[in-house]
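Question thread 4412

I'm putting together a teaching handout and wanted feedback from people who do this every day. The idea is simple: show students a protein as raw sequence, then show them the structure tokens that encode its fold, then repeat with a second protein so they can compare. Below is the first pair exactly as I plan to print it.
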Amino acid sequence: MIPARQGAVERFAADRDALVEDLWKHPSGQAWCRWHTALYDRLIRLVASWHGDQHFTVIATGGYGRRELSPKSDIDLTVMPVDETNAAVESAIRGFFTDLDSVLQRVMGTSFGYAYRLLNDVPGLDSTTRTGLLDLRRVCGPREPADALSLALRDSLPVAEFLRDKFAERDDALRTTHSSPLVVEPDVKSGAGGLRCGQVAAWVSRALGQRVSAPSAAYETVLRHRNLLHAVSTRHPDQFTRSRQAEIADRLGIDIYDLMSAHAAAADAVHAEYRTARRRVEHATFQLAGGVRAVRGELVIAPGAELGSAAAAVAVGTQIGLRVQPRRLAPGPLGSGASAMFALGTSEAVVRHLDSAGLLEHLLPELTACRTLMPRDTMHRFTVYEHTLQLLRHLDEIREGYLLELRDGLVDRKLLYFGCLLHDVGKRYPDRPHSEVGAEMTREIAARWQLEASVADQLHWLVLEHLSMARLIRMRDLMHPDTSREFAELVKTPQRLALLTLLTYADIRAVSPESWTPAIASFLQLAYESTLAVLMGDAPDVAMDSADARRRLLRSLAKEPAESVRQFVDSLPAYYLASTPAESIRLHRVYAERAQAGQLTVDFVPKPHLAATEITVCAPDSPGLLSRLLGVIYAFDHSLLAVRAATTRTVPAIAIDTFLVSFSGRPVPSATAVEMERALRTVIESPAATDDLLRARGKDPSRSQRFFSYTYRTGNPGLLEIRAPRGRGMPYRFSRRFAELGWNVVSARVGQWAGSGAASFYLSGADGRELSAGEVRTAMDALTLTG
């Protein structure tokens, strides 16, 4: 910069410092900001003049456009060329920005942002950019570009979308700052009662075509305090902390409590202005889309309106608080399926409004046909239609945790909500699995709506597999490494995993209040995290061969006595080593050593986060031991959630069995635990005691499980999945039969599935051999015939 120009700019810096010092002598809001703004106007005009300001127009936007520059406010500018085809214009603008950066940031210490705009850019501007331009003001250069920009902004403003975005931004800001203006340390810009409240109120009036009132006395007070706060702050100049309050009160010679009481009163009034502006929408009339208008707070849809655009308008109208009166509409053309999908993928409230407006029955007759359809699963609390909308409610109400991260991190949230709307439509046709029927119907809907092929494929997959994860967490051993690998092969991508996890969460919660338990919540998160680890390549490649599993475990137990650890690890089956945490194995080693010395272990550990208790039994193995232990749990009427069993290859062999049980939806009470421990020890030492205990507690120990269905997948262990009428005795009865056959249960999951009792048993034959499908079929058929 040449010396003459440098000197001129430095004089501006001195004038700015003097102006800030004068603020303490004459504290004010609007008046001081206008003097401050005028100083920067002169400076920017000076810099523009160095580059021929006839070539471009400089426009102030945001707070600078409103002439509300506080001492540390940023400066936002838009530059428009007079003739974008003129090479001299491009050179002039480049030189202007270069010198302005030097002048403002290096000399004045002022941050600034700028944008190069053409008139053709206006239709594509986002809400945030439009907001800044609403307060545009020409600083220098020809007037015509600024006038044309102002007119284009007014004519292209999507009123409803703009209001929705402003209200959403305000809601987000209030959540991150403070939602009440009556706070001790307020944020004078973004918090409740801050300047943004008054600014949004003005923007609402402008968007609705109403007269914008002059800033109120309360707004003036808040702005004055912001000016003073900026003058004493070096960091976070909008946080009115106690230390800054004290400094300002001291310099003004007033009482700090009087200062902040005055601020609270002003902030309360400014926040009331914002609330009034939001209510003003309820009395305005404006256009939302072709065929849809807002009239005094109500959405009015013209007969024959295009369904897609009308649905999108209802979605936006719902988000800004407009009402919909129940009515029936003559169907119009579908129009844009993408617009309709946007609307249906917004929230539960929008879908209910679409239903009330008479649009849903024309958009998705497959769903509204389920309005009074009763579920065949007795666990469900609602009709199929209402259950579906309850899913959306539970998705809307996610507020924290990994599920919130998943929902808000979705690339396309509409896929999730639309998939939820379609997941049960196949229940109208009960002769086939509803997931398969629903997936076929989804293909037909996607074709009717002319959705992109990739979208149709995702929706088809989501509806087809919507039960897969619920079945996984209820029926499979989630600690088994094969479980997450197999599920990863099904979902294939993290995005599909996220979609299915969220749908599963909402689907279970919408069944009934009793369906969502802490244990189910924990199992769902475990399934998600372990599957994601496989998809991202972070899961350990745990080979099921015993040599690899033993090497890994020995490294993790390196600090333990070497020989005893090696002997214990060598005695364990590979399945147990690969799927049991090292911490549990360390504890089980101690229990096993005690059992070899003749000391039984029956350990109760409450798991409040699962609303359950983990019971570990370690004792010399004997025929039917697991069945007897399950008999005790059945006798006490506890809900069995999971079983893990292992037997050491030592002499004597030691059984290490772990059970996860729930007592009426909570951990086992201590008094009951004492009684159960006594019973468990008794049946370990006296096998015949199991039948006596069952009879004493009103159970029939000889009852067989006659009515059931099953599937079996060979392997070692093999996986036997059983469906039977609900009842807590099913695991005991099957384990008793397995014991009679000499089979080993190495793990089990027990729960409910589709209104029935369900269990998965991981089985091996005597001496750990693999069971064939024929052996299992013969044994199951024999149960059916003799039961």
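The second pair follows. I'd like the answer to focus on this one:
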Amino acid sequence: MVLPTGELYEDRRASLWTIESSEEIRSLLDEARRQGTRLAGALNHQADREVARVVAVDGQRVVMEVQNFQERPQGRHRLSLDLGGRLLQFEAVEQGQRSDGTKEFRLPRVIFIVERREADRKGCDGRGRGPRVSLHLGDGRVLEGHVVDEGTCGLGLVVPGAVGSGEQEWIRIRFLEGERAGQEIFGEVRHEAIGEQRSGWARIGVRLSEVPSVSFASVERIDQGKARRIASEVETRFRLVKAAVRQSAWALGSRMVGRHIATPEVPVVDFRDSRGEGIRAIVDHVGNPRGAPAVIMPPAWGKTKETLSPLAETILETFRKAGESVVVARYDGIRRKGESFNEPDCLIPGREFTRFTISQALRDIRSTLDYLHSSPTFGARTSILVTFSASAIEGRRAAAMEQDGRIGGWISVVGAPDLQYAMRVLSGGVDYYAGLRRGFRFGEQEVLGTLMDIDLAGLDAIGNELASLEDARRDMAQIRVPITWIHGKYDGWMNLERVQDVLGCGDPRGRRLIEIPTGHQLKTSREALETFKLIASEIGRMALGRSIRGVVPDLDRLERRRAAERRRLPRVPVDLRTLWKDYLVGRDGRLGIELMTASEIYDDLMMKQVEGLQLFPGCRIADLGSGTGALAQFLASRKLWDRMVTIHEVDFVREGLLRSRERLLDPREGAAQLQARAVVADLNVGRARLYVPLKSGAYDRIHAGLLLSYLGGPAEFLAEAQRLLKPGGRLVVSSLRRDADISKIYRDGIAEMSSEKVGRLFGAEIAGGIEDRLRRFLNDGARILDLEERGHFRFWDEDELGAMVCAAGFSSIETERAFGDPPQAVVVAAVRR
């Protein structure tokens, strides 16, 4: 059966329901109060979990006793509780402190009910009674009961007495009758309901596994303070490089370092897999490559081998300084984006992944091992596998299959513990694999800006036992080599508890789980370079049997190398006008960037920009790159404007300017008296000798929010801003940070953008399809990040952006971070001399 797009959300509700009735929310929280249920939150800076108990529920307020709570932006805390066997999650927003030490919170607008099952279950017979089983508990007790429902991953059981789900970890289940008589399997008790079917008996839900966890893997945490201290060397190097090239590439944004310097050689090699299909790789080395340890780096989802250049350079520099030889190979996967083999109809930009399968990705790893270990040039004695994100799936299986010593260790960086969960999160809640098992067919779907055939890839993963958590647990139990798993503390895509679960399967010796203070994106930021040093050090430990100190490469040379790798590839044309139109007003022309600008974290960004503008009655503002008028809407909705304030909105997407005009004229917006004028203009002044069509020296303030990164000549644009401003006028610009991470922003946005809020802001008709709109907006945002990665755009940290503004002739430079927790953007305010 084919599942239409409009039904996807109904299917996802098998794994995630929402409660949006205020009356029902009050009732649930009051039940938690009566039961004295403990609510758990995130970890604070001391790695202690925030905990709370409900004291009172009064109208729109919830009063709670709290422990270990830390200050968070807008006082927002994510809490969860187990109530009646259901796992509930919601956001609690602080309203104030009471004299008795308790805190008041706003009544949640929505509560999520998270289903614990990984797959559906079915009843055993018409009476709901299945075979008898015995449960062998960790405390020595043996209970005999029977099955009431079962599925591929779990059982529903009824037993006399209480099991004690909070105390039991893994139990042994023995079937006493039926087709499985005599079979034993392990189970984890997920919930328990006493007296639900008969007095004195308990109904329990059990997740099944062939492999029990030996223990939950402990976490080594790198805290923010330590990260800042060890990052001082990187910050110094950034300052040195910036001073040396300030007037050239760093100030010109997309004009890469080394344009007038000899291009570094890019060592490209070609080899074939067992089917004769070609793989293209970049293989670097230091020292004697013959017999040296090799590092194999498969591409992450939607990425190419060029993305891993900074990590490759860090590994090479680390081994060079340690006086050791190493070979580093990164390749493009077959039937994926890049230079390796693909079907002719998949060479069209945007369709590269439509024939992608995980089993092929696994073959790519093994083919690369074959090449490096059999090549007369390399003849690697051992290989260390380094995977990022979703490539942990094929990496896990490769490490489990290779028992002949070719793989000497595996490092998973911000990795997916299992494919089913990862796809459910990346798709905005759609459980594709559960749907495929039930006979649904999805066809081609977009996942993080990349089009893929869900049916082809999903059925391949299921058929090769690469999809589920149980598949992951089984693989991990077979891995004998050392594993280091690096998890981002703020990674919105990956789940730490699931990582701990799978790492606990098998021999725990030689396994490390390290949490770093980053999100999911790791490419060129300071945090990324520090992580790459850690990876290089772990490679040394696995390959050499001793610790070596990670070393940051020369950043000037790194930029030249990245530029050289990009230049050798054909530049794919990009229709920027269509890209920005879809992003600003939505693919259907109804709702686009407002999904972001209406969020509380964007309010934080806009407030910092407005504070930097230092507006006054009667001032004239040029809002360059105004989009759909977020600045005007912000000023109007918060009464931060005067009827004499004039805003000239300038953008090259006419539809965005029209959307701004519509909203300014809407009586609900309260902005009817705000004076605004729209100007359609291309602000890419550095590429085509254009200029901003506004009068010189006519403006008191210039605002360019999240614009500079997308221009071909940021230095020329800043010169235009100088021309437009009056002497003493203020400029405010902002940019996403290096390695800006949309994972946590998107997850928080889903929680905030309830259908109730969207309906209130944009109308009930639009609210009805909010899940699909959020997914489309996520995909558009992912494409923008991909273009930054390919060199079309560029993001900066505050010191770089501040230096660029200073070099353009501005003074009194002020910088700060904003947009999320941790902040994903920087704001720079300055004065025209």
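Top answer:
Good format. For the second protein you could add a caption like this: The first helix runs from residue 8 to 12. The chain has 26 helices and 33 strands.
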